[in-house]
Design a protein that fits this description.
The chain is α/β, with parallel strands linked by helices. Helices cover about 35% and strands about 15% of the residues. It folds into two domains: about 180 residues, no CATH class; about 200 residues, Glycogen Phosphorylase B (Rossmann fold, 3-Layer(aba) Sandwich). It is elongated. It starts with a strand and ends in a 9-residue tail after the last helix.
Length: about 400
């Protein structure tokens, strides 16, 4: 195996990316991981753990890791790994990550990222020549990959939070997103088929007749999806505040609150579930990707209220499944979604949803106007293969 994959937080989008790379590289890689628990503890101590557990090998050529790992510490503890070409994938920027409470920020995590990312000028010049890294102010961009960083961000070699810019292998060959009526009228996908996969050029979607009880697109209440981690940086408070305002006005809607929860769940989730009552269609994490995609295919609108987002793979996946996206006019979203799908304030979000609740057929007949094909593995796979296939050299 020539590629060493290291993930200190093996869950969510971190796991999704590592599993994808392992599947593509097959026998040419070895994957070393730690469970997706106690994130802060992993950021502080993972280097010491991997120093002891990563097997030694003369075959390694490339080390690929996420920025949860303090890479500088690891290569100091394991000089044999310091000789490898190193690719560090940033899922988030810890220097700008929103703090949950008004208190002094712990800069250790951002400092880890700074130490791990530092690149000497001669190595940058080599990358510019070999794989197309370009300087953009004080940031760097791998040419051809969809850049998500602003000047000064730590994201250098890829887009992040996919909470990465990659879609899963099942997305390869996906057609353009379907308008809702076409999704509902297509033949039911087989149980062995991913609902968002295309085979033999046929669109495979779900037959939702039983779920919808035969009601037409105007009679069925608007179905809103929120498919994000149950944590404060996704700003669930704003999302639920908007929904409860809709409910106060007796506007009909259903909501599916998806995404993964961890040890500390913000109180707003239990409070909102009780207040929303019969409007809740689904509540909780779906470990099966097929079940998750089916839930997205059932929804009409997908919403983000995030305060920190480098990419947002959940939003792109939902668009693939036919959802109408509504995102903040901030962060990475204006780079991905046309202006039609952006809002500037919670009040604007409420007004958009209010109109959709009154006329759900508007979104069900809508055909997404943006481009998503560039985020599929079919488009990005070659770039990653080239990045991880470099031959060992003295100047790497």
């Amino acid at each position: 195996m020539s590629v060493l994959l290291i993930e200190a937080f093996y869950g969510g989008s971190h796991k999704q990316l590592m599993d994808l790379l392992q599947e593509e590289l097959q026998d040419d890689c070895v994957l070393c991981t730690l469970p997706a628990k106690k994130w802060h503890w992993k950021a502080r101590t993972a280097a010491l753990y991997f120093m002891q557990t990563v097997p030694t090998s003369t075959n390694y050529r490339v080390l690929f890791a996420s920025s949860v790992l303090n890479l500088a510490e690891l290569v100091a503890l394991r000089p044999d790994l310091g000789k490898l070409k190193k690719v560090l994938y940033f899922h988030e920027n810890q220097l700008a990550y929103p703090v949950q409470k008004c208190q002094e920020r712990d800069f250790q995590y951002g400092y880890n990222q700074v130490l791990s990312w530092f690149m000497p000028e001669h190595k940058l010049a080599h990358l510019e020549k070999v794989i197309g890294v370009k300087r953009n102010g004080d940031a760097y961009q791998l040419e051809g990959l969809p850049g998500r960083q602003k000047s000064g961000d730590l994201m250098k070699n890829s887009n992040a939070h996919g909470e990465s810019g990659l879609c899963t292998p099942q997305h390869e060959g996906l057609p353009s997103p379907l308008p809702a009526p076409e999704r509902l009228n297509k033949a039911e996908a087989s149980e062995s088929t991913n609902p968002c996969q295309e085979e033999d050029k046929q669109h495979l979607t779900f037959n939702l007749c039983n779920i919808m009880s035969g009601r037409d697109s105007q009679q069925r209440p608007l179905h809103v999806a929120w498919p994000h981690r149950w944590e404060h940086d996704k700003d669930p408070e704003t999302f639920f505040k908007v929904l409860l305002k809709l409910k106060e006005k007796d506007l009909p809607f259903h909501v599916s609150v998806l995404g993964e929860a961890f040890a500390e769940i913000p109180d707003i989730f239990s409070e909102a579930k009780k207040a929303l009552g019969s409007s809740v269609l689904h509540w909780g994490y779906l470990p099966s990707k097929d079940d998750y995609f089916q839930a997205l295919c059932m929804a009409d609108v997908v919403i983000s209220t995030a305060k920190h987002e480098f990419f947002g793979v959940a939003m792109v996946e939902a668009v693939y499944c036919g959802c109408y996206p509504l995102c903040p006019k901030a962060l990475v979203y204006p780079e991905i979604f046309p202006a039609e799908y952006l809002y500037s304030t919670p009040e604007q979000l409420f007004k958009r949803l209010q109109n959709f609740c009154k006329r759900p057929d508007i979104v069900r007949k809508h055909l997404y106007k943006g481009e998503t094909a560039g985020f599929s593995w079919a488009a990005l796979g070659g770039k990653f293969r080239s990045l991880l296939a470099a031959e060992p050299r003295e100047d790497l």
